[in-house]
Amino acid sequence: MADTNFSNDQMLKLYESMLRIRKVEEQLAKDSKEGNIPGAVHLYIGQEAVAVGVCSQLSDKDWIASTHRGHGHFLAKGGETRLLMAEVYGRDTGICRGRGGSMHVADFSKGIIGANGIVGGGISITTGAGLASKLTNDGSVAVAFFGDGAANQGVLAEALNISTLWQLPVIFVCENNGFSEFSPTNTVTAGNIVDRAKPYGTACETVDGNDVIAVWQCAERAKLRASRGDGPTLIEAHTYRQRGHVEAEASFLSKNYRDSQEIESWVSKDPITLFEKRIVDAGQAKIEDLQVISRAMEAEVNEAVEFAEKSPYPDPGGNEQQYMFT
Amino acid sequence: MAKKRMIQAINEALDGEMQRDKKLILFGEDVEISLFGDTKGLVDKYGTDRIRNTPISETVMSGMAVGAAAAGFNVVCHMMFGNFMYTGFDSIANQASKLRYMTAGQISLPIVYMSVFGGGRSAAAQHSDAMHPLFMNLGGLKVVTPSSPMDAAGLLRASIRDPNPVIYLQAAGRGGELGEVPDEEFIVELGKAAVLRNGEDLTIVAIGAMVRPALRSVDFQKTEGVSIELIDPRTLVPLDKEMIFKSVRKTGRLIIVDEARDTCSAASHIAALCAEECFSALKAPIKRVTVNDIAIPYSPPLEKNVLPNEERINNTVSEILKFA
């Protein structure tokens, strides 16, 4: 575990942010099972330390683009729980007024370019946002979250080349969660993903993606490089997708593709459980203090569900061309 | 008014827009040296922050345009040849055309993806496609196909100033074409077709480079006593449907000349619209003069045989006039 001199407040803030994601997604897992939401959801459970560690380094003027597994990034960057929940419920009060759904939650006012249904889709967009940051010269950075699956898209090679060549303030955060959809990463990926930075001369680091403090520190170094004009960094965060590729996948998959012992071993390294222990062991908070936060997050989620359920669906009788063009 | 070549008119329009709009950036392969001449001299005036060579990386370029536009810049993404837009198609189709809608209008994406398109120069199959129908079908893109130097400049200014993603396709074989261009800055509004010849017996709609052979045919037919109305839609999205309908209702006959392959061409779409909207006015079947569903060949006699030309248009005129 990474060393830390974090204040009690900082620690609890990181904890709260991770727990918010966890509670939202546990609710969505239940909603998916019960048929309360119309589309597919790809859950981030087990990976929260990556989004929270990185986004805690960012402000609203920094850009992030994310993935189909994007609720965590949205929430960690300051997206509102109730607006996300209403969006996934397909309601008119959602952050995208029901036009986008789970895979497209975005809030540009908070620098969230959005989740993305195309694996690797956010990589080029982030590179362009990084170009904008460089030209604006306002110290902002652009962060692309993507998975190990997306690392096998050609766009990553193009993006590493051009962003290094142009010294763009970009952070590429590859969350290696062990699976490329339904295929274990090692069956579809040659070599180490982090090494893909090396031929371009791009700065790169691996980090324990279940250690929020280690991620925080890694992101801090990358941000510093970016904002002082030293160009991009590729971070490979090793973590684990505790859930399936998509909720309810067991209903359509013909065979099991996961090892239950592997799941158990990673659940025992759950980033939130580890962080709880660390906070309590260091005497930075009592278990009761953490329970207060947990209850507050549950209340926030319950309020968000109620808000979503009470919200109307978008009116199909309205102007269907609205939002196509400005 | 002065006579200018199309590529010069485009160059001047880009220059003027770079001057006018400090948030406008342009990047693409070899734009500093300028293969076609459209971006010639711009890097010397505006510097490499705003005019910049990219690696040959269309996949990342098309998406970078989305990111830079989302972050507040106006972007011209120069894709060189239309066929290279296929290489960069993902971000055009999945991101640029959809992001505004998917986020309920949270952002505008002021991007111009520009390239040359079409054949006629023995550039062979991977440098000669007319792929505008692909972009028309995506819904979230404007599609612009100028046929004269004046329209090339006026439509480019409008495209750059438009807050939406625009596909700007300049006919590859027409860069050297001369035409009158006003001395003062002017805009050609997107979505407004032009009537290039007035006529009574037949309407021809011609797209991009097809306007020239269509003009020749119309002028020849006039000497034969056939009065043809020639319309250049100028933009395919938005399409000036009413101007086309009005003409077809008047003449009762329609030929569409399009350099796209026949299946699902712009010609097919315009034919379908007119069949639906102008059925009772039609005196003859609607005819399309297009490219057969084959790759564009290299050898000049083969390529010439594939592309629509004046002779094919004249034959189609004769065919259509035989009806009642």
Structural commentary:
In chain A, strand 7, helix 8 and strand 8 (233-238) form a beta-alpha-beta unit. By secondary structure, chain A is an alpha/beta fold. Chain A has one domain: Rossmann fold. The mean pLDDT of chain A is 97. Chain A has 11 helices and 8 strands. In chain A, strands 2-1-3-4-8-7 form a 6-stranded parallel beta sheet, with helices on both faces. In chain A, strands 5-6 form a two-stranded antiparallel ribbon. In chain A, helix 1 (8-34) packs across helix 11 (287-310), helix 2 packs parallel to helix 8 (212-227) and helix 4 crosses helix 11 (287-310). Chain B has 324 residues and is of the alpha/beta class. Chain B folds into 2 domains: 2-181, 3-Layer(aba) Sandwich (Rossmann fold), CATH 3.40.50; 194-321, Rossmann fold, CATH 3.40.50.920. Helices cover 40% and strands 22% of the residues of chain B. Chain B is built from 13 helices and 14 strands. In chain B, the strands form 3 sheets. Chain B has a 7-stranded mixed beta sheet, with helices on both faces. In chain B, strands 9-11-10-13-14 form a 5-stranded mixed beta sheet, sandwiched between helices. Chain B has a two-stranded antiparallel sheet with strand order 1-8. In chain B, strand 10 (202-206), helix 9 (211-223) and strand 11 form a beta-alpha-beta unit. In chain B, helix 9 packs across helix 13. Chain B is globular, with a radius of gyration of 19 Å. In chain B, 55% of the residues are buried. The interface between A and B is large, with 46 and 41 residues.
